[in-house]
Predict the structure.
Amino acid sequence: MSERIDETSNSEETNDDVPYYLPGAPQPSREPGRVSRFLENLLRRRGSLVPVTRPRRRD
């Protein structure tokens, strides 16, 4: 049988080397509420939602 090589087992890259994909995201911390505050600020609605209106189609 052929031996299957696990690519992750020989990797020299650790989790500390992986860059965060979301700029401005808080680094892992023991401070309670830090991530939730970040998400609230990120997802905060800016003003009211405006319904999309499209012109009526003339048949």
In short: DSSP finds one helix and no strands in the chain. The longest helix spans residues 34-43. Helices lie at 34-43. The chain has a mean pLDDT of 67.
